[in-house]
Amino acid sequence: MTTVQWQRKDLVGIYELSAAEIELVLDTAxxxxxxxxxxxxxxxxxxxxxxxxxxxxxxxxxxTSFELAAKRLSADVINIDTTASSLxxxxxxxxxxxxxxxLNADIIVIRHSAAGAAHFLASRLRASVINAGDxxxxxxxxxxxxxxxxxxxxxxIAGLNVLILGDILYSRVARSNIWLLTKLGAxxxxxxPATLVPRQFESFGCRVTYDLxxxxxxxxxxxxxxxxxxxxxxxxxxxxxxxxxLFGLTKERFARTxxxxxxxxxxxxxxxxxIDSDLADCERSVILEQVTNGLAxxxxxxxxxxxxxRT
Amino acid sequence: MNPVVIMDAAAIDxxxxxxxxxxxxxxxxxxxxxxxxxxxxxPLAQRLARKVQSICGREFPxxxxxxxxxxxxxxxxxxxxxxxxxxxxxxxxxxxxxxVDDVLFTGRSVRAAMDALxxxxxxxxxxxxxxxxxxxxxxxxRADFVGKNIPTALTERVRVRLREVDxxxxxxxxx
Lengths: 311, 175
Prior knowledge:
A: alpha/beta; Rossmann fold; five-stranded parallel beta sheet; four-stranded parallel beta sheet; B: about 30% helix; globular
């Protein structure tokens, strides 16, 4: 057990966290996971606090997960999405957030297409700001729930070979995962089409390889990332069919992996593109457990950032 | 004033033995169970359960309860307490639960513990056993079984050390 104290008002990224802080979140999440397994799935921990889900980019699962996490902690929740927001009427992000703060919101969960949006708000508001994904920068709670799932399944993170496969270039999930896993001592390998997995990522402390079969053979964890058509200005590969032939997790490739290798995916999955449909449902796939654990991790993050006296 | 040892290992053991006899006297129910409040209540609950078992010749379930999520002082604390997992691998419904803690002071921990326990089900009855009652209650709560009453000033600190956690058994009052 770590003895570090959580002193942060916000969770903007994994990059600035220490290994001890990451472990504190994961340990705390273990206690909160129990709450979701009981008949009464609610505790009074954040009673009287208000959380605003400010999603300037579409998302269902992350928003729902934060909403349910807040409700299980007895906080009140307001959801603001792009179409209903005055941002479409020309209000700036800062004015929107200042208005939310004027309503005495205690926690603002923000998703935005611009990298740095969460940091921008965190440095200007008294409220706790939680980054639910900013551009291609970071998605810290996703990396934390991935790590929680790996630790729960494998008992550790240090020394594991984690392969992240797919669209790395446009992926905030990849960046947050790389920071987190390398801080906790895992060996991270990136693979996928060279157009989406540039060598420059090696400066993050991980390995880039285009030998997919070799990387799959030694992986303890295979984290598949969705091809984000919406983020690509031009096509990074000739066709979906070619991608799934060359980089999809097919039954043939899966047969050559370690017998206890985990399959992970942050969702939503494109069946038949990055993963064979049957494999997504096989017993080594922990995709749905990631969703369950996401709730526990987000409860822990909300508790740590918004619980306790404000200094 | 230097720390004064109020109870040593033998005194702690005698108190637990006496409380065990009192529990057996008052609760012949087969539905008895013990729940220790994190951290020091947990080894005390185990010790108390063992004593009761040796008197009755029956086994009773033991669990541990973390009350952090139910505390009423979270908004006042600069340093957040660590949240630990509770471990109660049995159904609390219909049980006669003896909550066990080291020191009874304001009563706020016990209030939080009762709420945390009731979230897990509906015990038929909740009883409270504490090693030390130091007074200064802020809530209408009293213990059913007390190891030792220690009148204290508000400025004093009562520390219970147990060998399972602190490698030594003693109760100390510090000014």
